[in-house]
């Protein structure tokens, strides 16, 4: 998906969010239900963060320049962090108002109409959220993933709201409105904090172990005899761009051209597993005497020790900044 397509999709989420927000506040006005208010307040957050997400997608799509040699993709983590913070604040507001109304309740009315409006809004949010997460993961866009998760969380909380509104209609127990809203507020706070945590991890270049494991597993599956080891592997994400650094140990007598060809083959393998916009920096290390014990090359005229065993490439040894050898058996 191109940058313009992602921006258009984000525009769609904003416009839909504005429409749904209007409907939810109308539902709150005619019912005075705190359960419905929680949904309405989340819609404000959806719109605010959606607009900032639009800006972040626009900025992330800008090409690399002299001031930003790795591109502008990190802005997506800031956008997701802002969204998570606002979600948490909305949850705190819901929590306090619901607790207040437990002691000073408002009279509920027209709950059947409010239930119908909230149900329609929840279904729309679920569909858009599902596609936003799907598109975001396919294109490694933190902004779309965060927006989609927010919309899906909104839809899941709507299900709880519908159950709560139905119980209130059946039992006529109005205090249940505030009790359910308190639980929903806690869930919303947790969701917001979790998004902030993921955002901070991205800004701090936290290791994505699932992505690393996927790459290592693919290289292990496709490894060739002259690739003696891969070590010091690191992956950093910048929006929809992925940067990978690693060292590859090759026979010491390879020419520059031969070494380049092997690295190019490895890069193509990594590109099969990682999202688009891959940028790699692979350093060649020459083999040493202790490398012979794990080297598969059968016709090597420079072998100093007999082949002993194969070292399987795993996260534990591939991420280390040291050549593999007999001691790692």
Number of contiguous helices: 9
For the largest sheet, list the strands in their spatial order.
1-2-3
Low-confidence stretches: none
* Domains (count): 2
Structural commentary:
There is one protein chain. The protein has two domains: 3-203, Cation efflux protein transmembrane domain (Alpha-lytic protease prodomain-like); 209-328, Alpha-Beta Plaits. Strand 2, helix 8 (256-273) and strand 3 form a beta-alpha-beta unit. The protein has 329 residues and is mainly alpha-helical. A three-stranded mixed beta sheet has the order 1-2-3, with helices on one face. The chain is elongated, with a radius of gyration of 27 Å. It has nine helices and three strands, in the order H-H-H-H-H-H-H-E-E-H-E-H. Helix 4 (111-139) packs antiparallel against helix 5. The protein has helices at residues 3-31, 34-60, 75-103, 111-139, 142-171, 175-203, 209-222, 256-273, 315-318; strands at residues 229-238, 241-250, 278-286.
